[in-house]
């Protein structure tokens, strides 16, 4: 019986490894195509259930909406608080991290309602990117990119969690420039990028939402002419797609690089379209689409 169990375990492991290898061999990315351009600096792409893409233009202080089949956009949110990251709650409510020092949600009447703006009575730096867990816990990074030295009240850059009761919890404060943030598909891990070093950290996530067991997952190089480690997303197989100084880089679950695409300009963040065959990428001037085969 013992030998039978060992054989079955070995056989199952071999099958899973074979499937994984086949999947990685089939994995490929197309050349990027521009879907819309002419912006100042785009960020925070988010796909809506109505089949459109919204994204921030930070200097323009606006969120734009783009629909497939057109290169034109319309203003989705005016006076966005210099929004950066955009994500959706499980109920579809749009949440924005804003360089004006707050995290807000979009109400049905089109107005923004502040969720948090201070930590222990001090102004947040410039909330940058966010990831929302399936139980509505909001995680976000708060580097000092968008706050002047005169307005900066916190002497650290934090990674925070907003609990369901609205309480703001500081989870991590050991990076000078925390930036991109993303969950693994099963939400058991959280990835965090550091724009200062190019490191991508990986944390285990406890059921209560706390982080532990910090690990170095990968490095995509320090800042360069085309930006720094920035926005990230995972697919249903656990691959991590990240923007950085070398363009778009994809890693498997063990941190092995699978693919890289260079761009002519700095790219900032990524988002899936209606499914995982289309990846949308924001950049300094444009929004791109890359087709994914896996």
Description:
This protein has 294 residues and is mainly β. The protein contains one helix and 27 strands. The strands form seven sheets. Strands 1, 2, 25, 26 and 27 form a five-stranded antiparallel beta sheet that branches. A four-stranded antiparallel beta sheet has the order 3-4-5-6, with no helix packed on it. A hairpin with a 5-residue loop joins strand 13 (130-132) and strand 14. Residues 1-22 have low confidence and may be disordered.
List the keywords.
single chain, 294 residues, mainly beta, five-stranded antiparallel sheet, four-stranded antiparallel sheet, 27 strands, 9% helix, disordered N terminus
Q: What is the rounded Rg?
A: 19 Å
Q: N- to C-terminal separation?
A: 38 Å
What is the overall number of helices? 1
Overall pLDDT: 93
Short description:
This protein has one helix spanning 2-26; strands spanning 28-29, 33-37, 42-47, 53-57, 62-66, 73-78, 83-88, 94-98, 102-106, 112-116, 118-119, 122-123, 130-132, 138-142, 158-162, 168-172, 178-183, 189-194, 199-205, 211-219, 232-234, 240-244, 247-251, 257-261, 267-272, 278-283, 286-293. The protein has 294 residues and is mainly β.
Topology:
Blueprint: H1 2-26, E1 28-29, E2 33-37, E3 42-47, E4 53-57, E5 62-66, E6 73-78, E7 83-88, E8 94-98, E9 102-106, E10 112-116, E11 118-119, E12 122-123, E13 130-132, E14 138-142, E15 158-162, E16 168-172, E17 178-183, E18 189-194, E19 199-205, E20 211-219, E21 232-234, E22 240-244, E23 247-251, E24 257-261, E25 267-272, E26 278-283, E27 286-293
Antiparallel strand pairs: 1-27, 2-27, 3-4, 4-5, 5-6, 7-8, 8-9, 9-10, 11-12, 13-14, 14-15, 15-16, 17-18, 18-19, 19-20, 21-22, 22-23, 23-24, 25-26, 26-27
């Amino acid at each position: 019986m013992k030998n039978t169990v060992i054989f079955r375990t070995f056989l199952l492991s071999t099958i899973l490894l074979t499937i994984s290898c086949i999947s990685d061999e089939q994995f490929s990315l197309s050349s990027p195509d521009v879907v819309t351009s002419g912006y100042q600096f785009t960020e925070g792409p988010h796909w809506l259930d109505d089949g459109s893409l919204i994204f921030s233009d930070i200097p323009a202080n606006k969120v734009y909406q783009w629909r497939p089949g057109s290169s034109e956009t319309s203003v989705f949110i005016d006076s966005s608080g210099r929004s950066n990251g955009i994500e959706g709650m499980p109920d579809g409510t749009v949440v924005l991290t804003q360089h004006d020092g707050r995290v807000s949600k979009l109400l049905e009447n089109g107005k923004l309602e502040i969720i948090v703006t201070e930590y222990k009575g001090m102004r947040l730096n410039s909330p940058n990117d966010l990831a929302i867990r399936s139980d509505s816990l909001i995680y976000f990074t708060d580097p000092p990119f968008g706050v002047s030295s005169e307005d900066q009240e916190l002497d650290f850059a934090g990674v925070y969690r907003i609990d369901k009761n609205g309480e703001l919890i500081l989870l991590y404060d050991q990076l000078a420039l925390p930036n991109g943030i993303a969950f693994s598909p099963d939400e058991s891990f959280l990835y965090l990028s550091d724009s200062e070093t190019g490191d991508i950290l990986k944390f285990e996530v406890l059921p209560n939402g706390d982080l532990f067991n910090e690990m170095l997952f990968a490095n995509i190089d320090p800042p360069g002419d085309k930006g720094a480690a920035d926005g990230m997303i995972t697919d249903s197989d656990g691959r991590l797609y990240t923007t950085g100084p070398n363009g778009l880089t994809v890693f498997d679950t063990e941190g092995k690089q699978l693919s890289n695409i260079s761009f002519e300009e700095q790219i900032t963040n990524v988002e899936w379209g209606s499914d995982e065959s289309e990846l949308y990428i924001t950049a300094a001037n444009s929004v791109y689409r890359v087709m994914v085969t896996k």
